[in-house]
What we know:
Blueprint: E1 3-7, H1 12-24, E2 29-34, E3 50-55, H2 61-71, E4 75-78, H3 85-90, H4 92-113, E5 118-124, H5 149-168, E6 171-177, E7 180-181, H6 190-203, E8 208-213, E9 219-221, E10 223-224, H7 225-238, E11 244-247, E12 252-254, H8 255-266, E13 269-274, H9 292-298, H10 306-318
Parallel strand pairs: 1-2, 1-4, 2-3, 4-5, 5-6, 6-11, 7-10, 8-13
Antiparallel strand pairs: 9-12
Helix pairs in contact: 1-7, 2-4, 4-5, 6-8, 6-10, 8-10
Amino acid sequence: xxxxxxxxxxxxxxxxxxxxxxxxxxxxxxxxxxxxxxxxxxxxxxxxxxxxxxxxxxxxxxxxxxxxxxxxxxxxxxxxxxxxxxxxxxxxxxxxxxxxxxxxxxxxxxxxxxxxxxxxxxxxxxxxxxxxxxxxxxxxxxxxxxxxxxxxxxxxxxxxxxxxxxxxxxxxxxxxxxxxxxxxxxxxxxxxxxxxxxxxxxxxxxxxxxxxxxxxxxxxxxxxxxxxxxxxxxxxxxxxxxxxxxxxxxxxxxxxxxxxxxxxxxxxxxxxxxxxxxxxxxxxxxxxxxxxxxxxxxxxxxxxxxxxxxxxxxxxxxxx
Length: 320
């Protein structure tokens, strides 16, 4: 059996990745590592898979090296991150350290103990920064122009990946992942935040209501997290070390259109009011990626329609 370490095991993407493995590749031994206890029932997967959990602070390099020596993974899916752009503006130092320094610790631990393991370094479309309309959809050769502390940390993480791949021959594969959404996502992120407030109108019994938002004219590229997990598996097992891959849908959507879609699905009328507190500095107006590279090299395709993702998220939220 192949051994897989997942950092950020307690998070949103990890919970869906575990379901993906359970359904399609239960022969993996999974070793989850996270600072906090997982919010999903990871023990449930033990009826078909070997799954163990270790609570650890990845800022502790010695502890991480010890875990690598104990687990000796064949694969590492690095999901641990402070992935909120807004949070990075409020806490830039903390965001940088918890995105860049923990990854450096991981690389050093792997190099000492299991230098041949395959590592998927999950990055962000925020690394591209403000891209001219004529350069859309964004391809992997687009220059990086990060415009937030979070984006700078992700660029640093990617550069570390390339340095260790080039200097030590480590098998690090990198993503620039665009927005992904799905059932169970934290309401700190834009789509579940909108969903939560619009569903709140429905639950109040009123036919209409107003919500405060940020800039709804921005355009983003959204992919269902269940399609993202398929992409991550393919990259982990078949991606080319030292290479970067966009993980995206290739289609942009205005946030205002998403508000209208949610309101229609929930069955209420919604008006919006822009709040200055929700406007980000240096907001990227339009971020749409090209998935051509991962499609051609690994045969990945997005399968779940956006409208179905929204319906599934509504159903999950309404059940609570």
